[in-house]
Fold this sequence. Notes:
81 residues; mainly alpha; globular
Amino acid sequence: MTIQNAFTTGRSLITAIISKMSDIGKVQAKFIEHILMLLLSIRGKANFLQFSRYGCMNEKSYRNNFENGFDWAGLTGSLFL
């Protein structure tokens, strides 16, 4: 019997939603999964400094990855399908 907490359940839900989207690559999918988990766990403002404080990347890495385009509306649409 496996025990799942809210963190692993949330991660599996986010992974399932992102896997429905066909137009993103593996690296971008992993980054978006990481960002969404950070947004769920950070209290207060969510900015690049907070991401680097609580995440596993440098602040500049978060800035560079956010410069790439991402279909946030498609992600929200995949959530409801």
